[in-house]
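Fill in residues.
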């Protein structure tokens, strides 16, 4: 059985518009990350080889979108790769460790810079230094973490759609 190409295109367009304008998608898009923006700079160095905790407000979860590293590291040995570790937890789950290794500068191999796009969720977060290669004689970094906060409790402003009931038709502006 042959289907008219116009009818097929119309059907696909109709299903596509349903997928775009469902209440679940509108609910997800109604959260404005700019209103809940989060940015913090954590300083780590070789003198303090411990994790530094990042404060996340109670009842909220941090969604990390970017980690930017800038700093310097030296060794008396042949090779050093500084590493920054982000340790996060979700609920009662064990810690999740994410490793970020910046690239050395082209003009000065003791200076390191890098910018990492990522997605990392955190109810708790700590940042710590690490390295590969020879022990550092100097290591200091600024770690800039950006993202946004989301509430862990459901908002009363946008209740979920009722099951089995039709929702109003939404048209683009």
């Amino acid at each position: 059985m042959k289907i008219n190409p116009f009818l097929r295109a119309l059907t696909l367009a109709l299903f596509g518009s349903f997928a775009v304008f469902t209440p679940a998608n509108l609910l997800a898009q109604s959260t404005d990350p700019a209103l809940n923006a989060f940015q913090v700079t954590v300083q780590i160095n070789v003198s303090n080889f411990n994790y530094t905790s990042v404060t996340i407000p109670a009842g909220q979860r941090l969604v990390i979108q970017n980690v930017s590293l800038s700093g310097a590291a030296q060794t008396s040995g042949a090779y050093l790769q500084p590493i920054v570790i982000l340790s996060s937890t979700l609920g009662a789950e064990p810690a999740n460790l994410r490793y970020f290794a910046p690239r050395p500068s082209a003009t000065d191999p003791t200076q390191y810079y890098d910018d990492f796009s990522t997605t990392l969720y955190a109810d708790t977060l700590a940042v710590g230094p690490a390295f590969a290669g020879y022990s550092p004689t100097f290591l200091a970094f600024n770690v800039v973490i950006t993202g946004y906060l989301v509430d862990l409790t459901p908002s009363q402003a946008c209740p979920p759609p009722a099951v089995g009931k039709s929702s109003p038709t939404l048209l683009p502006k």
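The CA atoms of residues 53 and 126 lie 4 Å apart.
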